[in-house]
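User: Can you help me understand a structure? I only have the sequence.
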Amino acid sequence: MEFNTAGLISLQEALDKMRAYVPKKTAQDAESLPLATAAGRITAAPVLSPIFVPPFDNSAMDGYALRIADLHDGAVLPVAGKAFAGAPFHGEWPAGTCIRIMTGAPVPAGADAVIMQEQAEVSEEGVRFTATAEKGQNIRLTGDDIEQGDSVLSAGVRLGAAELPLLASLGVTEVQVWKSLKVAVFSTGDELQPVGTPLQEGQIYDTNRFAVRLMLEQLGCTVLDLGIIRDDPQALRKAFEEANEFADLVISSGGVSVGEADYTKQMLDELGEIGFWKLAMKPGKPFAFGKLKDSWFCGLPGNPVSAALTFYQLVQPFIAQLSGHSAWQFPPRLKAKAVTPLKKAPGRLDFQRGIFSTNAQGQLEVRTTGHQGSHVFSSFSQANCFIVLERERDSVSAGDIVEIEPFNALLRS
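Assistant: Let's start by predicting it. Here is the structure, written out as tokens:
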């Protein structure tokens, strides 16, 4: 079957073009922040450990520290003292004795091993051990986890609940991060009304800008919300100029189609340059990418599902790259058995919303959320993945194998 996709570029081509535009970051793009305010930010340089971890030889068990030379069959070793975490043993340690020691406590100088308390018989005379010991047994050596000067985080890592406590445990108080990306966002269309305002005849709520702002904030961006811009060239020009002055990236919703009142492409032609504006993707064909005087521009389609999908598949990775988040990637795609038919015509890469699960045999299977129209935003609240249907593929029958892309944290509740 032949299909007409003249003038449309593939998703991969679009991503490659967008990545090619991103300049290398410089030292001027970085800033130093206290750990307490660095959550969600991206490291601008490797973080080196200022200390050894652990900082001293310590016990991995509750038990007894001893010299292996004192340990022989039936020997009873008197207890010469105790060592606790935060309270090391500092007294005299005579030969032929042992030290009671707790997990995390510094190992006394000269100790060869720690024998766990479950392998010890305690009496008034001392301790007899029911197991032999090897040199270094149950002793965590200085720097066994991290050496002083080791790189514990590379550049381009997003700081979160796994990374920041690690830095705190090393005594790091400040970290070099890339400056937060500044993004201006607005919607276009006379039919739009802000959320919470009563609707008049022919009006709809501006859910796109609401959703985009939420996603931008989740991605750690500083957002300037310019609201709803009416279908007027002068108002749109003013919005573009204000956005360009503030932002690294400008995102609009609507106005990138081919209707008589779709002025966004016209403004982009006048104020900047267009990289591309038609994708061989469904939903999301009318997506515009380009450059303004001082900022990048992404124009999302007006339909809610199309806007969310193009943001997720195109704007999200572009923001990651602009932000210096080099470790960012989509969840890996998986193979699953379709348990419901999926309607599709060849011609465009199709991202349908699906619900995947594991069946009784341990196999992945996926079903549709139902109607896939670009206005059915409720499909996102039901779905946990995209069903990714290849550009050339026709409709899918129940039982066919398809590719799925689980949602990442941007869409997963």
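Now, to help you interpret it: DSSP finds seven helices and 27 strands in the chain. Residues 1-5 have pLDDT under 50 and may be disordered. Let me know which part you'd like to focus on.
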